[in-house]
Amino acid sequence: MKKLFLTNALLIFFSMGICAQGSNSGAEKKQENGLGKSLIVFYTWSGNSRIIANELHTIIGGDIVEIIPAKPYTRDYNQMIEAAKQEIAEIDRGKYPAVNNPVGNIADYDTVFIVYPLWWSHMASPMQTFLHNQSAKLRGKTLALICISASSGISQTVADARRLCPNSKFTEALHLYSSEIRGAKNQLIAWLEKTGLNRK
Ligand SMILES: Cc1cc2nc3c(=O)[nH]c(=O)nc-3n(C[C@H](O)[C@H](O)[C@H](O)COP(=O)(O)O)c2cc1C
User: Fold this and answer.
1) Above 60 in pLDDT, residue 83?
2) Distance (Å) from CA 10 to ligand 1 centroid
3) pTM of the predicted structure, to 2 decimals
C-alpha cells in the first residue's frame, strides 16, 4: 500500500514537472515575439513622421492610424512655431488641444508604437492629447516611442510620455533626425532587434 502511494506520488510529481515545463516554454515563446498584436499611431505636421510610420508598418505589419487635430494648424511655418509654443505652454496648465480618436479599442493591442515630431523640446501636442485621453487603457501595455527632431535631444518628450502614461511599460525610445528620414529603414530594423520588438 505504502509502495503504491509512493509510486502514485512520484507519478504526480513528474507529471506536474512536465506540465510546468510545458507552460514555461509557452511563456518563452511569448517572450521570443515581444511584439504581440501591434498598433502604430503617428502624428505629423510636415510629413516626416508619416514616412517613418509607413516604413515601420512595411516591416512589422499590424494596424496603423493617424492622429488628426480637431482644428487644423496653419501651414505657415513661422505662425506654426508660435502656435505650437502657446499650445505646449497650455498643456502645462492642463489644457490639451482636441484630436480625433482613430483607434477602436486600444486595449486590444499589446504593443503601441508612438511616432511623433518634437516641438519645442516636447512631444508634439496632438500626440500628448492622444496619450492623455488613452492613458487608462494603455495601462500595462508596451509603448515604443519614435521621435523625430531637427537637432534637439528627445529626453523631454520621453518624460512627457511617461508622465501621461505612468502605468505603461516603455522600451528604449528611437531618435531620428529629420535629415535621415529617407534612409531610416536600417535604423528601424536595428532598433526593433535591440528592443526585442522584431516580428520574427
Ligand atoms: C512647431 C515646431 C516646433 C519645433 N521645435 C523643434 C525643436 O525645439 N527642436 C528641434 O530639433 N526641432 C524642432 N522642430 C522640427 C521638427 O521636430 C522636425 O522638423 C520633425 O522632423 C518634424 O516632423 P513631422 O514632419 O512629422 O511634422 C519643430 C518643428 C515645429 C513645426
Assistant:
1) yes
2) 66
3) 0.86
